[in-house]
Amino acid sequence: MPGMATDAGDQTMVPLSSEVVRDEPAVHPLRLGLRPPISGISISWSRGNLLRVASFRDHDAPDGGDGDVGGKVVEVRLGGRAIDGCGGGVDEARRRRIAYGSVPAFALLQGQRSSFAAVTRMSPYPSLRAEWWENVLDYSKHISSLLGDPKPLPNTVIDDPKTILNKVEEPTYLKAAWELLEIFYVDKQSLAWLPERLVDWLADYDCLLARESATTVHSNLVTLQKKLVSLQVVEDDPEYWEGVSQALAIGWLEIVVKLLRLHGSYQLDQLGDRETENGLVETVAVLVSTMPRMRPDLPPGKLGQCYKTKPDFVKAWEKWRDQINKLDCSAFWFQCGHRQTREGLKSLLHIMLGKVNNLISATGHWMELCISHFLYVRPFTMGLDGTYNLAQKCMQTKPISQAHMLTSLLIGILGENTEVVLAECSKAFGPWMVVHAMELLTAENTQAEALLHEERYNLGGISIVELNRLVYAQVLSSEALTWQIAPVYLASCPKQGFGLLDILLYMQPVQHQRVLLKSLEICRLYELESTSSTIMKIAGMYHWKHGRKGSGIFWLQQARDEIRLSRIAQQLFDFIGKSISDDSFKQWEGMIELLGSEVGTAGGLEFLHKYRDYKKFLQHIRDGIAVDVARQAVESLIQLMRSPSTPPRFWLPLLHDSLKLLDWRDRPLLNVPETNLLLSKLQELSMAKLRPDFYQIETSSQDLSSIRLALARNLGRAILEEGSLNVPNINPHGIHVREM
């Protein structure tokens, strides 16, 4: 990026633009923290709107002795062009609110478009097209409300009669451009009363035109309002009559009447001497306030007579013009002794009669002149017929030094050039405007719809609509606070949207729980099951590698990753198998519970779950719980010894844990077959010591002797108990009964 050098000690970077702009260039201070001399600077883009600036010291420079380094890298957050194209118009917080607020309307319109396309394929009636126009209009109204409305600023309790302009917040260029697109592309009713819509638009945004023109009606009225405070006789000041003429030229009738009522002839002490003059002023004020206006309704406080149909409007307009002509030819003008009043009122009549010279002198900007032509020269204009040629003539009459964003946009609209309109929106307002404005351009224009939705080879087989949505989604994805809404726009791109959506979701950090849950929610909304599974696998392995074993297993289970869960189960089994003491088992008991017995049965988790249950039974026995629990522990022990999933190296620890069961005081808990099973397992262990692959368990000879003695004692007790049960008893009736 070219730059303009400043003083070495200033350490600032000043962007240099070849265009002539009114705003001062942005200056971003850089605190490098590096001793001079600096041999070079490297500038590159970082994430979002951050600029990475790397500075390097000269290798031959002497060392300062305090740990000087060879270079430093700093990041500069650029203020960025505001979303409405004017410096400082919209801050970052409001820009994000607009971005988030426009998502529901955009998503709703895309859903309605899909439903509309399905219905029109079955029943292509014109009425359906009208319904679609209403949907786009609702969408446009919602976006327009997000961009804000000029709010009146706090004013004094007592109204000043010399206040002709209400104080409101300065509007934004973005809102002005959006309303222009709505007027010409979406609102079909507005084309029938186009002059009135333009008058309303100019009343809200004429203050923005002052940046490209030396003078506008709004700026002149602001100056006049300041001057009225000190004027005693307003009708003697030429600027007063100029202000009245300018307000009338662009249809601000309320201001015209209010200014006329400030005329000195309305004062009580002068009514007798200036009766004719006051009558002429009041007559002109009445004519202004009764001007016919073709529009559906009039907002509160607006002057004029409203007509909804063209025939009624034409009749009223001709009658109103006849009244003006009669007044213009009246003999009362010779009785008016105040020259400034006579000339000023005559100028107002000529404006209402559509005299071009008066309109040119009463307007400052070419758009004001164009609207004055619509009002007084071509009042019956409907649609865009001839408006482009009229705009060109007005621009020649009122040339400007440099085309402004609104000027270029309006020329593109009047020329019915969709590509020019999109280019101006992109240049002045950025990708947000382009993406959302394309819905307006294609609302009632089949040619524009075909142009924007046509798949182009030079764009990789995608359309202009999809390309701009992808660009805007990329802008959203580059910021941590807006990436969540990028999927809405990517999902509306059938060619490349879902592929880029996968990449976007994979790029999100899985270590942050909220970000991870948000990514999974997006996958659920758009039915991206494969992507969701992959993200959960990535999260599981990340947590596992960083020591959060439980979280890792949880996410791998959610992803149904049987392969990795089996490997984890095998590692867990191998680790516990090295030392199956109570302490080591308690350390991993929670993870065994989390893994579940259905995962990795061959790897030993089935055995670990059974062993966990066995340990719980033994713990209850130590706590003094009844014999039933001891019998359940015996059944669990026998299942473990008979199960093929129990490795032989665990037999001896199991037998050692069963000593309390074998030495049960009241009666033997294990019968003869169960005791023989344990003895056979112990014998197999003794024989297995001779094999080279035998896994040696650390145990003492005393423990082995204790196990053998306990088994032998239990076997003897079991035989005696079963033998006593087999002794026949003789009942009183002499019948032999075998006790079971």
From TrEMBL:
GO terms for cellular component: nuclear membrane; nuclear pore outer ring. InterPro entries: Nucleoporin_Nup85 (IPR011502). It comes from the Eukaryota. The keyword Protein transport applies. One of its GO terms (molecular function) is structural constituent of nuclear pore. GO terms for biological process: mRNA export from nucleus; positive regulation of DNA-templated transcription; protein import into nucleus. The keyword Nuclease does not apply. Pfam families: Nucleopor_Nup85. It is found in: Nucleus, Nuclear pore complex. Keywords: Membrane, mRNA transport, Nuclear pore complex, Nucleus, Protein transport, Translocation, Transport. Its main location: nucleus. Belongs to the nucleoporin Nup85 family. Component of the nuclear pore complex (NPC). PANTHER family: FROUNT PROTEIN-RELATED, NUCLEAR PORE COMPLEX PROTEIN NUP85. Functions as a component of the nuclear pore complex (NPC). This is Nuclear pore complex protein Nup85. It comes from Acorus calamus. The lineage of its organism: Eukaryota, Viridiplantae, Streptophyta, Embryophyta, Tracheophyta.
